[in-house]
Design brief:
- The chain has about 290 residues and is α/β, with parallel strands linked by helices.
- The protein has one domain: Rossmann fold (3-Layer(aba) Sandwich), CATH 3.40.50.720.
- Helix content is about 40%, strand content about 10%.
- It has eleven helices and seven strands.
- A seven-stranded parallel sheet has the order 3-2-1-4-5-6-7, with helices on both faces.
- α8 links the parallel β5 and β6.
- The longest helix has 21 residues.
- The structure holds nicotinamide-adenine-dinucleotide.
- The site of nicotinamide-adenine-dinucleotide has 28 residues, from α1.
């Protein structure tokens, strides 16, 4: 029971994405009701129907007849738009009546907010190389805001519900780039650094309310948002950057979305009731490796 999420109502922003969807599937299979928040109705609907008919629900019932499978619902929401977040909250409350946990998984990087090379070389500013001066300020802001403000807004908008829950839990999805910035990705790294900082700030601020705030820093998982960096666009082969990451990941592989599930369950359940304000790396050893 200490690791149970049965009966909890959980909101996942970016729930239609690769990592958010894997979390949602596991939580529904564990008996939670989960609202997937995201911008694109068709993506959310497809995710919800996949989760609600997943085999895991049936398998779960066979393993333990006492576990009630939950359900997923789709709710449109732009995490950068306050009124959109408020409307999404109203929809969730109308459907579930409460919110016990929030997972902020909306986030990402973009080629427009990235440099073309890892380090500036002499002459680059006068060449075709995409340097930091070619990253438009608006693109920097877009990605930095998506990761930082897009985490902050849902935390504040769902806060009254999380406090009402009595043992509310927030999980923010950070990155290995928060602590040690990722080359080529200045806006993403800065945005995720803000996520770690905000996680700790909110954990302290909310500690007396019963709401716990933690983050997970995934290592490298091959998904839509980073495929352009980790694989060759034409061939799909691992790019030199992807190879470098694998060489610096002691387990020698990219993560699979299911690798995050046990940490999510732990941070949401009573098992972690005295844990708040931490960032848990789930990274195959990337953060521990000095490179030699
Ligand atoms: N994939 C990795 O290797 C990796 C590593 C570290 C951290 N992360 C983080 O994990 C989280 C999930 O990433 P993913 O790999 O599943 O990527 P993904 O692109 O599959 O999912 C991100 C989701 O966020 C949604 N989103 C983007 N902007 C939004 C907005 N303004 N409002 C609402 N939703 C919005 C996207 O539509 C998408 O569904 C992100 O925060 C990402 O930065 C991913």
């Amino acid at each position: 029971m200490m690791f149970s999420v049965e009966g909890k109502s959980i909101v996942i922003t970016g729930g239609g994405g690769v990592l958010g969807r894997a979390m949602a599937r596991a939580l529904v299979n564990g008996g939670a009701e989960v609202a997937l928040l995201g911008r694109t109705r068709s993506v959310l609907d497809e995710a919800v129907s996949e989760i609600n008919r997943s085999d895991g629900k049936e398998v779960n019932k066979k393993i333990n007849k006492n576990i009630r499978s939950g359900d997923a619902i789709a709710v449109r929401c732009n995490v950068l738009d306050e009124s959109s977040c408020r409307t999404a909250r109203e929809t969730v409350i109308k459907q579930f009546g409460k919110v016990d946990a929030l997972i902020n998984a909306a986030g990402g990087a973009s080629p427009e907010a990235s440099t073309g090379t890892e380090q500036l070389q002499e002459g680059d500013l006068d060449s075709e190389v995409r340097t930091i001066l070619d990253v438009p300020y608006d693109e920097f802001r877009k990605i930095s805001d998506l990761n930082s403000l897009g985490t902050y807004l849902p935390m504040t908008i769902f806060l009254p519900d999380l406090i009402n829950s009595k043992n509310g839990s927030i999980i923010n999805i950070s990155s290995m780039g928060a602590d040690r910035p990722l080359t080529k990705s200045p806006a993403y790294s800065a945005g995720k650094a803000a996520v770690d900082n905000l996680t700790k700030w909110m954990a302290v601020y909310l500690a007396k309310t019963g709401v716990r705030v933690n983050a997970i820093a995934p290592g490298f998982f091959l998904t839509k948002q980073n495929r352009f960096l980790l694989t060759d666009k034409e061939t799909g082969d691992i790019s030199p950057r992807g190879r470098k990451i694998l060489d610096n990941t002691p387990q020698g592989r990219f993560g699979s979305p299911e690798d995050l599930v046990s940490t999510v369950l732990w941070l949401l359940a009573d098992a972690s009731c005295f844990v708040t304000g931490i960032v848990v790396p789930v990274d195959g050893g990337f953060g521990a490796f000095g490179g030699v």
